[in-house]
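Case study.
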Amino acid sequence: MSATTETPTTASASASKRAFDEFWHYFTESRGAVAGMIFMIFIILIALFAPYIAPHSPIETNSDFFRTPPAWQEGGTSQFLLGTDAVGRDILSRLIYGSRYSLLVGCIVICLSLTFGIFLGVTAGYFRGVYETILMRVMDVILSVPSLLMALVLVAILGPGLENAMIAIAVTYTPHFVRLSRAQVISEAKRDYVMASRIAGAGRIRLMAITILPNCMAPLIVQATLSFSTAILDAAALGFLGMGAQPPTPEWGTMLAEAREFITSAWWMVTFPGLAVLVTVLAINLMGDGLRDALDPKMKRS
Amino acid sequence: MFQYFLNKLSTTIPTFLGITLIAFAFIRVLPGDPIMLLGGERGVTPERYQELATQFGFDRPIYIQYKDFLLNILSGDFGQSFVTKQPVIDEFLARFPATVELSFAAMFLAILLGLPAGIVAAVKRGSWFDHTLMGLSLTGYSMPVFWLGLLLIILFSSILGWTPVSGRISLMYYFDIHTGFMTIDALISGQKGAFRSALSHLILPAITLGTIPMAVIARQTRSAMLEVLSEDYVRTARAKGLSTFRIIGLHAFRNALITVITVIGLQVGVLLAGAILTETIFAWPGIGKWMLDSIFRRDYQVVQGGLILISSIVIVVNLTIDLLYGLINPRIRQTRG
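After joint prediction, the assembly is written out as follows.
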């Protein structure tokens, strides 16, 4: 008995290991993807150990150091490597703490929109009929409002703040996941293996969640990675417009909003937060491209 | 084709109704009493409250309220701003040309640079140009546009002093508005330097807004061209001895165009969203800035009307793209229609 149960598990374990090795092979083939991944690990470490790395408190003001330029420029001190902002807060420390907010936004937005998107998309693709029609029309409606405008209107309803901004962004992303997972489920549901497990007596929930869903994940993972980066951009945009994280939160977009009036006099206040957003988003997009090439068999050829 | 058109149109109507429903619900789900919200910041006397309730029909059943709301919109009445007392539709129409001018300029730049770059990258696949372009394109795609706008201001306006910081034209020039497009009106007016001034105001916002579409167009053109270039008929054309230039111009490009048109169509929503940020940074008096200002002023009647108007534009553009699609490619007409 033990022998018969053991063989399939080891076989599937080695199969999944082989699948992973194949994935890893294609992923590491792209230098950009590896560079993106290394940089992401770097950012994650910074976010995790922010209190130990940051030289100063992100919200503590220094009345002696208003708008101090970066250390290498005339008038800068080595105490504040990237300079200080209008009320004398250390920009480097604020950037380091800011990474926490950006990663948090990305994670929560993806969790929310992926969960709801998959649930709605899989049920729509499985049950079809009126439910599907109505649901997809609702998604069309959400998609026809420009995403940032939708997020702004939702934040106007919910009130400004980082939490509400995340909810608002998640709402605007959900339709993409609904459409994607529905299309996947519809094409998968016709396959023989689904029919086989239906005949074997699998229930609806089992069919949807255990039989079909795992085979739909690849494009969803790619979409999730790319949405992770746009979520960071959108949250920064909302912060910049004053509808996201509120001061004195060291969120990158909010920092940019505070720096706007000093655009001609203190370039470092404007440059560094935006650069932080750019490199983080770029790293995630590089990873996303690598993931897509590794997971999407259609792209492997080219 | 007509059948295809009707099919597409019939899916558009529920979407439009859905938008009106969201806009209708918007004022009613805002925290607080909608009448107090509509009344503005100063507060409302009990008599005025009753008056407002009757005026907006809040004292009637909800489905009648929605019916009236819908009928008003269909007759072009989007209510009036509580701040300026102007009809919302008039405010919208006064600002819309500014956004269209900016979007056209941005799209013009994006296509002018993105399309040829994508084609060259595909033809010279694997070259340093290809690698550089793909790197740049990914950077452009990852760019926080509001930050890019600020950097451009720092570089071109404060350091180099080449371009003005905000607005559409220097206050020195005054002329009649014919088209609402400042560059064209400046040309019509014939005033010396007016066109130059309008153009120098337009260039930075256009670059800011055009960056993401440019990156997307370059990437998509490249991959569409790569796909087409590997097709059998291109190889046949090559075997026939046609020059690379002719093959690309005649065969490959025309087929890649379908992908590109889709991408351009998809960018309209992106442009309108980007317009909110770009117009805010450059104080460009278009609908994006108008919407954001209205949200901040709690001018919810404007937000409600603007939401419907802007979404309708997206819907109409998407419908047009779908129809263009059907015209270019008859196969789509049959399978999807």
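Observations recorded in class. Chain B is about 75% helix and 0% strand. Chain B touches chain A through 50 residues (CB under 8 Å). We will return to this complex in the next lecture.
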